[in-house]
Amino acid sequence: MSEIKILGWIKEQYEMDFTEELEQLEPRDKSIYEKVVQALTEKLEREWIPVSERLPEEYEQSSDIYDMDTLAVIDTKHFTASDLMVVTVKDIDKDILFVCDDITVDGKWVNFSDGFEVIAWQPLPEPYKEVTK
Question: Second label for 82, Cα 20 to 30 Å away, from 39, 53, 102, 122?
Fold first, then answer.
């Protein structure tokens, strides 16, 4: 998440704008500021984001389509897709929630449709890192 997004989030959540103050920071203070931005970034990336608020960012992708007899590329399909996300899904019929993973392609969740609704998502956590002594 960029510094601009963090500042926007702070402004939205707390109705405070620190842009001018940040421009006047001393180099030693900028180091502390960078640590605060990193901590806020990690916090924001671990929180659930309602689908009603926004979907994950998607990136341009392409996939070749092959002739099955000659294995020659006969076409290329272009689309946008997100990274893999952790999602909270509502089973509408049973009125229960569960957590799994999914991606979006062209603005739609891939694994869930009729009877299910993705209601929130978040990026996958960082893998566990074993601490060696």
Answer: 39
